[in-house]
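Researcher: Sit down with what I've pasted below and flag anything odd:
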Amino acid sequence: MTIHAMAAMVLAAATLTAAPMPRLVKEKGGFQFLVDDRPFLILGVQTGNSSGYPGELEKTWPLAKKIHVNTVEVPIQWQAVEPVEGKFDFTLVDGIVTGARKNGLRLILAWFGGFKNGAMHFAPAWVKEDVKKYPRMVDQTGSPIRALATHVDATQAADARAFAAFMRHLKEIDGEQHTVIAVQVENEAGVLGTDRDHSESANRLIAQAVPAEVVKAFGRTGRGTWSEVFGVYANETFAAYHQARYLNRVAEAGKREFPLPMFLNVWTDIQDGFYEPGFSHPSGGPTTRMLPLYKALVPSIDWISPDIYKQNYVQYVQEATPYSRPDNPLLIPETGRDLGFCRRMFYALGDLKGIGVSVFGVEGAGEEGIPESLRDLAATYRVLTEAMPLLAEAKRYGQLHSFVEEQGIATLVTDFGEYEAMAQFGPSHWGYGGARAAGTPKTTGRALIGQIGPEEFVIAGFDTTVNFRPKFGSAAPRADFVSAEEGAYVNGAWKARRQLSGDQIFFGLRLPGAGAVVKVKLMKY
């Protein structure tokens, strides 16, 4: 056998054993994120900004498994992997990937390069200290601030070169197993402390005509300077243009080395106070107002994700909705952990067709058991894990919906075509207009209901009573449960626990406070 033939056999064997690349696919009901060629709902936690070290993570891996996490998001600091220009040290990356793999967890690695929360905290010292080669942005008063100027070629090139080296190394250690399923490029990019760079070089650029690609991205016509075309939003749009080009250059360099899915996270412009770019939110990031520009200018980015910490459901949905688009799947890479946020995850994963959620700042402290502050999250992730293949099937069918209790909202009805589903939270009483639910004592009701066949549904959630009826006006006006099977998916197979009947379905199918997954079949009569 020739050397070339042997090499071909080795390559073929490697190809057969390598896991498929994680990827997005678009179906009737929205996007599915595939890992190992199976739909994968990201149920994640993200460590603290300075906790991306193997020793720190040894305390986090066990906790992540206890609370039914399948993905841990960990920062990779530019300053840690390139402490000296041109000399890379990926020991930390190796330790993180090895630790996750040993614990059966997936990773999202977040590249903290030139931008983190609108500042340059994680850039190497040799970048921070060489202000001539890597200049700072300048604010309206002419003072330099702690953000790198995005239009400077040397800064873009340095960040892109480091990211490319990181992705090259990641391919070497994880190119077949895909412990890492996605990479976040920078973190909440943009600038705080000014609406744009007011340096002399930036002032010369903003005085020029707006590039045609920017005008086109916003569906406008005509040309002019930035202020002529965009008026009061000129400075923010100018900042977004240069920030987007910077980010795409970094992502593009990495994708040439290893084309894992890549995304941006964003501190959005849905704020509680007055709108003021650079102060109410980082100016120049992929906010709702700047999203059309980003979608046009960052082809190397697979999706853009909002970080959401809003405490009320109206703003939560308002912040999430713009990022659930035909060209953009919804992933929430940072959110809170309490019961309110656990309820609101159901909006993201149901009606908004999300591919996952991740809770920020979860780290192990060596304690036994599950901390009180994480018990609602653990229960939520457990139920979603047990239902994951069925939820994917319902999304593929095009019918996966959210039912979430809020203060004053204890009954919800949704149209599934041939059927209508009604979810009620708390005890019911009859009065004018029919049954009225009183709500649960601690507002714990939440469910996802998905259709997986003409008469078949999946129900996953907590503290909810569910009833169905045929669509109003149907020849057969009533519906009943043919079967109701409570169970869970374990190692890819459905395991039934019990058949529900009698009191559990007579007044509607009841999901307990501890949570459950139920497959039901209906009939009309």
